[in-house]
Design brief:
This protein has a 7-stranded mixed beta sheet, with helices on both faces. It has a two-stranded antiparallel ribbon with strand order 6-7. Helix 6 packs across helix 8. The protein has 245 residues and is α/β, with parallel strands linked by helices. It has 10 helices and 9 strands. Helix content is 36%, strand content 24%.
């Protein structure tokens, strides 16, 4: 498996691309996150709780990964456009959704030129922004493609968790870090940002923050993954924002 980012188009603008675009990793990751503790029984339920009634809503899944969330939203009546920088993830999204999603290969560090102004009712971005170098552009583009009074829900690493595991450096600076994923035997690069910077970028993009969730694991997590449940019940792993345009 490739362990280094070998993309030469924009350097760090495609962070951890070679890992996510490795077919062996992509398929293993796709299978694990469908039923695991941190995604299936912790992060995704919290994200969905903020979306409300999605029947007939046009939703952009920005950073769709292998399409697990896109598939769930389609099953609940949404009209999905799924975007990711990895061709492997786009392939898996098409397979998982039986081609019911409009799946686009997009680098979210760049202008989303394939998308129209005010095209979507909702944008959801699950565990993606910590891979993006240019958050200012990303949120500006999300505002552009979102309809008036639309909402955006995004999740990311909780700053508490990031700094607990990576206490070197300066919390108040945006810093490039590596995260070890022992279950896959890989390292992932990501950006650690202070919470204040995320708020500042969101405001600059003319969004208002409607709600923030520091989720707790679902009760089913306690039954299936008691060790993970114990940790997630005491330490915030992810943080989830609901924005309004």
């Amino acid at each position: 498996m490739a362990r280094e980012n070998k993309d030469t188009e924009t350097g760090k603008d495609k962070l951890s691309y070679s890992v996510y675009n490795d077919r062996t990793f992509a398929e293993s990751y796709s299978n694990k996150i469908e039923y695991n503790s941190h995604n299936a029984l912790y992060e995704r339920p919290a994200v969905r709780s903020l979306l409300g009634d999605i029947t007939g809503k046009k939703i952009l899944d920005a950073g769709c990964g292998p399409g697990v969330l896109s598939s769930e939203l389609i099953d609940n009546g949404a009209i999905i456009t799924a975007a990711d920088y990895s061709p492997e993830m786009i392939r898996l999204t098409k397979e998982r959704t039986d081609n019911k999603a409009r799946a686009l290969e997009l680098n979210l560090n760049m202008p989303m030129e394939a998308l129209e102004d005010e095209e979507f009712d909702i944008i959801v971005s699950s565990l993606t922004i910590h891979y993006l170098k240019d958050l200012t552009l990303f949120f500006s583009e999300c505002n552009r493609v979102l309809r008036k009074d639309g909402i955006m829900v995004f999740s990311t690493h909780h700053p508490f968790m990031d700094f607990s595991f990576h206490s070197d450096g300066n919390y108040f600076e945006t810093e490039l870090k590596k995260d070890e994923w022992p279950s896959y035997n890989i390292s992932m690069e990501f950006y650690r940002r202070p919470l204040s910077e995320i708020f500042s970028i969101v405001r600059q993009a003319e969004f208002t923050v409607d709600k923030i969730i520091e989720p707790l694991p679902a009760q089913k997590c306690k039954e299936k993954y008691p060790d993970a449940y114990e940790v997630l019940s005491k330490k915030p792993w992810f943080i989830i924002f609901k924005l309004k345009k």
